[in-house]
Amino acid sequence: MSQVIARANADALPDITTERGERAVFCGLTSIIWLHRRIQDAFFLVVGSRTCAHLLQSAAGVMIFAEPRFATAILGERDLAGMADCHEELDRVVSELLARRPDIRRLFLVGSCPSEVIKLDLANAAARLQGVHENRLRISAFSGSGIETTFTQGEDQCLASMVPDLPVLSEGSQRLMVVGTLADIVEEQFRRHFAQLGITEVDFFPAARADDLPPVGPGTRVLLAQPYLSDTVTALTKRGAKLVSAPYPLGIEGTLGWFEAAASEWGHHAEAVQEALAIPVARAQKSLARVRESLEGRSVHFLPDSQLEIPLARFLRDECGMSLTEIATPYLDQTLMADELRRLGSGVSLVEGSDLDSALARVREHRPDLTVCGMGIANPLEAEGFRTKWSIELIFTPIQGFDQVADLAGLFARPLVRERQLEVGSWS
Predict the structure, then answer these.
(1) Residue 200 and residue 220: Cα distance in Å, rounded?
(2) Rounded Cα distance, 177 and 158, in Å
(3) Of 193, 400, 194, 405, which is closest to residue 284 (Cα–Cα)?
(4) Over 80: is that where the pLDDT of 12 sits?
(5) Whether 105 contacts 210, CB under 8 Å
(6) CB neighbours of 278 closer than 8 A, spacing ≥ 6?
(7) Which residues pair with 19 in a beta bridge?
(8) Which among 29, 164, 350, 408 is least surrounded, fewest beta carbons within 10 Å?
């Protein structure tokens, strides 16, 4: 079922078709893989089934003896049937975990589909356990369930659960808070660029250490590094923070616009930002040119999965010369995407939600050169002769900023280059 939303300003913004139907996406537990790498002294305890445990183990590629900072408290049949006291068992597991791992500074209790089906209240459990271990660490809970969400929204739930613990920003202060998980190397690059712009009061949330909590208040300016953090933004704005409307730092234009938006809050004009960042921009342009020739003139189709689809489509069209057959995204927060939607403009097919059968029918109709989709859909499409790119790879790979532009374009170029090599090999 689909519905077209009419717009008063149709010349500037794309029309959006909404669909409701069958979806094919990863669950939010997947977010633990990049979150546990970022917050290096946190532990993620999933309350779920053996399936949850197998998902995390296979997705992370970490052997059990490597002492990973995530685990699954497995709900048994007695738990699911309501015959056992889940809270009593959870208390025991947490106590054993903390005794074994004294280095943990933050414990996340992560809900799953099974725990939510039986209405296990992990928020109250976290509050109770926080009282027991008050001086030891912080404990909070969030949902990683895939029942209603996509895999990237696990990060949104995690960060939103941390907002109540953020200290209060002193009155009269102004600080920039970059929100969204980034690789350490990207954070270092961004700090250097902000310093070039004279912005030194910068916090990154989440930080590499659980106790490194940025202050928040009316002087906080929130700049999003990831586009799927709606609940986190809501929690921060309730504490007085102001959201900075900006594109996302994907590609040269998106990254430059991102810095310009932040700098404007400190009274700097766009021309001054362009002058200060001229060297990294020129370096990025040179590196991108080598990859662009593999993408220019090719078509790309986005199936809904990661919520990165819109800024990625903008980058591939405007900087790599690709044509867009369709952009589909699981959910569309028009406030967080306002700048990207303006840049995308009219004449673009944009779909919110998914009806899997209809979505696949349009892929077969358009026959794009490249389809960006989830892993579960990629193999069947490859069997039909389509070239695909796993959208989850775009989350696990550092792609933000000037220095990663060529790497970002290369992720999309690789399947097309491989296809050409296979064609040449078959012909010879």
Answers:
(1) 13
(2) 17
(3) 405
(4) no
(5) yes
(6) none
(7) 2, 353
(8) 164
Is the link from the previous residue into 330 a cis peptide, with omega within 30 of 0?
A: no
| Cα–Cα dist 202/134, whole Å | 29
Angle between helix axes 86-100 and 122-132 (nearest 10 degrees) is: 50
Burial of 167 (0-12, 13-18, 19+ CB in 10 A): exposed
CA-wise closest residue to 317 among 337, 345, 290, 353: 345
Q: Rounded to an integer, what distance in angstroms lies between the CA atom of residue 190 and that of residue 208? A: 15
Instruction: Report residue 180: phi and psi, to 5°.
Output: 130, 140
Tokens 């738990």 -> residue: 79
Q: Are 305 and 373 in contact (CB under 8 A)?
A: yes
CATH number of 2-24+282-427: 3.40.50.1980
Q: Where in the chain is the domain with CATH 3.40.50.1980?
A: 2-24+282-427, 28-149, 175-279
SS (H, E, C) 282-342: HHHHHHHHHHHCCCCCCEEEECCCCCCHHHHHHHHHHCCCCEEEEEEECCCCCCCCHHHHH
Backbone CA torsion sign across 54, 58, 63, 68: negative
Q: Which amino acid is at 138?
A: R
Which CATH number applies to 175-279: 2.10.70.10, 3.90.110.10, 1.10.600.10, 3.40.50.1980? 3.40.50.1980
Give me the residue label for tokens 């290096």. 40
Residue appearing with tokens 């917050």: 39
Instruction: Give dist(CA 303, CA 246) in Å, integer.
Output: 24
With 0-12 CB in 10 A as exposed, 13-18 as middle and 19+ as buried, what is 366?
A: middle
C-alpha 193 chain-centroid distance: 22
pLDDT tens digits along 295-344: 999 999 999 999 999 999 999 999 999 999 999 999 999 999 999 999 99
pLDDT in tens, 50-103: 888 888 877 666 545 556 788 888 876 554 444 455 778 888 889 999 999 999
**CA distance between the termini of the chain:** 47
CATH superfamily of 28-149: Nitrogenase molybdenum iron protein domain (3.40.50.1980)
**247 CB-near residues (< 8 Å, 6+ apart):** 253, 254, 257, 258, 261, 311, 314, 339, 340, 343
Pairing assessment for the beta strands 242-243 and 70-74 based on DSSP bridges: unpaired
